[in-house]
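REQUEST ID: PR-0412
SUBMITTED BY: lab tech R.K.
PRIORITY: routine
TASK: structure prediction, single protein chain
INPUT:
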Amino acid sequence: MKAKIGSRLLRGIKPKSTRYDVHDEDLKGFVLRVEPSGAKTFYCKYRLISGKQRMQKLGSASVLTCEQARDNAKQALALAAQGKDPTEVKRRARAHTLKSFLDEEYETWITTHKRGGKDTVQRIRADFAELLPKKLHEVTRWQIEKWRSKVIAAGHLATANRSMTYLKACLERAREWEHLDVNPLADLKRVKEDSSANIRYLSGEEEARLVAALDARQERQRQERDRHNAWCRERGYQEWPDLRAVAYTNRMKPMVVLSLNTGMRQGEVFNLKWQDCDFQQGDITVSGATAKSGRTRHVPMNSTVRETLSAWREQVNPADPSAFVFPGANRTRLDNVKTSWANLLKEAGITVFRWHDMRHTFASRLVMGGVDLYIVSRLLGHSSFQMTQRYAHLAPRQMQDAVEKLVRESNVISLSEAASARGRRG
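STATUS: complete
OUTPUT:
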């Protein structure tokens, strides 16, 4: 039987005493099979290079629309036209391990469609390394629950939620692409976080130790360069540039100073280019193309940032305004500073402190200094004011002043005033 396979046909077609097929009159090979029970299933009929015919099940009409099934049939027929067996291709795809799915399909898709996609895939690989060799269908909810409990017990609730969300989205994409029948994490909820309790910022004493460690690090590097150049002079070799003639021995100190005084995210610092730094206007443009919120914002330079970036610019002398302010190898975008950062914290004696916590330090200093939360939100580039409210408890003086206004403006007599009045009458 031939007919146009569409929603109208599906609504009107009736089962018979035996199974029968309806062949689409427009797309050769697109088939609707009707069972005596009334069940309807889409198939694709194709021929291999050997001449042998095969039928690939596309899915039930109760799950797929006619348009979806037709598209799937076209894909299968295209594979057959290329000399590939669509059934075998689908079988191999279903055999993906988590690693092969990340490497061969998911990474390309997410880096194209999602900002920060590369970092997302790296996080999945790092946090779920033990699951990478497993087939997708072998990844179970129990394994993730076990991992999450361990991470939360170590005091990293936010990390557990974030990484679990990344993996959940990855497996959901695998399900949508028919590599999984069911996403085992589909209904797994994030553990509720107390956002106000998660703020880690530097105390004044810790910040002083961090700066001291940076200066000590620079002095060691200068001394090492002095010794090396002395060795070169003795042998008549060309000396390396004198590190005592420049403000900074490398990018680490200016990056830390910038982060503490602007609240820029690490990725925003890595993406920063000289053309984004306007020394005349005194601000830094964080492009929406690279910002987490997707919105461009302008961060004012205070005198410390202006002096730091000016000295760094004079030192590196960039010929191209589109060059990165803090380039990595071969002048490409910097990838990470994990080792240098970990060593610096160790030297400063600072524990449980991430690079991102310098952003918290920036915000906390502002709030404790009496800056309005709305201004702080604008400076941080938060997509919602709720994200900024986590810092509200750091301004107890402001909240105390607010409720004291009730006392000054209210006509209600306080207990102490009433007692004084009675005393006067007596």
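NOTES: The beta strands are 2-3, 20-24, 30-34, 40-47, 53-60, 277-278, 283-286, 297-300.
REVIEWED BY: pending
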